[in-house]
Structures are given as structure tokens and as C-alpha cells.
Design brief:
Arc Repressor Mutant, subunit A; WH-like_DNA-bd_sf; ArsR-like_HTH; DNA-binding
Length: about 110
């Protein structure tokens, strides 16, 4: 699957709006897991693979290549790290995790039919 590009059709958007391009990229298998696992420290491939235990080496390698190609992840002396843009993106995504925790009761109530 080619890298999503602004102005080109992506999943969910024919116009290729930047936010939809980002969502397309981040919705790929293990993309978010890689960002989360690199958010606190650099990790080598084996460490990332252990933390993303159901990711095949080929999928993990593909995601790392994609995230490197768009400037969110880079090679470091000790493995992989987030770039400045990657760290900025993570800081912006982290509050969504907090929101999701607060949303759980609403989701549970909806599944019960409340």
C-alpha cells in the first residue's frame, strides 16, 4: 500500500485532507503501537517486536519504513526513536488516550442499551 499523501485520495477521503492522510497512516497495523512504544525511549527492532507481540517482522519492518519515510521515526545509534515531529504528534495524541478512558462508561452503557 503506498504512503498516503495530502491531496491524493486516502481511505475515508477522496480529497486527501491532511488530517485524513494522518488518520490513514496511523490506522495501519501497528503504526500507533510503534509510536507509543517509542514515546518513552529508543528501542531496537527486537525490543519493538517483543512489545508488539502479534506483529510479524515483515509488518513491523514495513511500518517502521513508512514512519521513517514521513519523518515521524528515525534510526538512532541504539535502534529507533521518534523525531521531533514524532514526539510532537505523540504529545497531541496522548490526550486522546485520556479522553478514551473517560469515554469507556459511555461505550459500556451503549453496549448494554442504556
Amino acid at each position: 500500500m503506498p504512503l498516503p499523501k495530502p491531496g491524493s485520495a486516502v481511505r475515508g477521503s477522496q480529497s486527501g485532507q491532511p488530517i485524513m492522510v494522518l488518520f490513514d497512516l496511523l490506522s495501519r497495523r501497528w503504526a500507533m503501537g510503534i509510536l507509543w512504544n517509542l514515546s518513552d525511549q529508543n528501542r531496537n527492532f527486537r525490543d519493538l517486536q517483543a512489545r508488539c507481540d502479534s506483529a510479524s517482522p515483515s509488518v513491523l519492518n514495513t511500518r517502521l519504513k513508512e514512519l521513517r519515510a514521513v519523518g515521524l521515526v528515525e534510526r538512532a545509534d541504539d535502534g529507533y526513536s521518534l523525531t521531533a515531529d514524532g514526539r510532537d504528534l505523540f504529545k497531541r495524541l496522548e490526550p486522546l488516550g485520556d479522553w478514551a478512558k473517560e469515554w469507556v462508561p459511555t461505550l459500556a452503557a451503549a453496549s448494554r442499551g442504556d
